[in-house]
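Our platform keeps sequence and structure together, in a single record for each protein. Because each token names a local backbone shape, the row as a whole describes the fold. One such record is reproduced below, unchanged from the form in which we store it:
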Amino acid sequence: MAHEILERLGKSIELRLVAIALITLILMIPVAIVGQLILDRSERREETLSNTGSEWSEKQTLLGPVMVVPYSSSEYVSGTSGESPVTVRYAFFLPDSLTITGTVEPEIRYRGIYQVILYSADLTISGSFPEADFSRWSINEDDIRWQEAFIALGITDMRGIKDEILVNWSDTSLTFVSGMQEASILAPAGVSTPVTANEPSEFSFSLGLNGNDELMFIPVGKTTRIDLSSSWPSPSFRGAFLPDERTITEDGFSASWQVLDLNRAFGQSWRGESEDSLLDSSAFGVSLYPPIDQYRKTQRSTRYGFLLIGLTLLAFFLTELRIGLRAHPFQYILVGLDLVLFFLMLLALGEHMAFDLAYVLSSIATIGLAALYARAIYRSLGVGLLTAGILAILYTFIFLLLQLQDYALLAGSIGLFLLLAITMYLTRNFSNLSALARLKKSDDPE
């Protein structure tokens, strides 16, 4: 019974096409398994990088400096008699100008087979504060605690601070100490130092900071200007503001931002926690991304698995129609599994070498095995070379799509249209071939 089914399958063009379609669909199961393996390896990499980066320092976000001035406030409490209790509240003032210049130098470390990108930033921060103005809130001068005023600088991960932070405050030299005091509502961690707040002041200080992958800033100045440079060639600018000017070369990048208070959602001064939730939404900066994410590209390549397997098996079928020989369905499955292994080899090799080289080596191995197998099945060197040529075209087409970002959809659509046109041309006499096959079947002796 099974022998008769295989005989009918071999003689019927329609059944062979159905079988090829089913084999292609079945082979998408191992392709999906390889895709899940890629995701698992990518997640493992991210976990490893996160653990290694946290040992160095976390992603850094700088907030400030911000001037904080406490004041006394008497509030009437319903149901009580006598004088209202006095509580201490805090007013926050931002600088008129804030300028940050510096370099962000990458440091590459390895954890097993994974590459971790850390950085060391050397920043110079300067600007000016106006006199703290309480007039808009009708607070008595006697209630303002000028002697308790301080400035605070928010730093996400204090472990990244490389040196002592000395501040030039007008004509005075100050030293930041750990802790944000009451400004901790602005940032989870940071440093602070007492200052004189009832007169205009200028400030400047240097900050050496280690971080992991990302360096962000919150534009607290009425005019905030940031100039960064680095030897890293593949930055990713992100956040609420993109650079006004940027230059990216193989030797590194430089970028400049200028943000006005009119560009933000928070003002130059406030009391309590009224503006705290708006600060993070204005953060911007740069991430030092790897030049090539092999997992992302390998995952993208699996999306073309159906195209690669389906067109290859269709090419085998059309070749059979031309030469009059037939392959066993099991041989079709073996050829398809060879194409599936391409993605697995690409994943494995991509973890140890550049993606492009891994793609070339995986393609050569897959094409070579498929071509040799086709030569052995059909006993024809020409068929083997034809198989190698077809697969080389398909792999080259997929490789070009992987290199494109903005034009991948356009290029893919045009390529698929051309492939469909070629297939339609090659099958233009398909009905005649099908009739001929049925005629041969009727002439066969019982």
Observations:
- The first helix runs from residue 2 to 11.
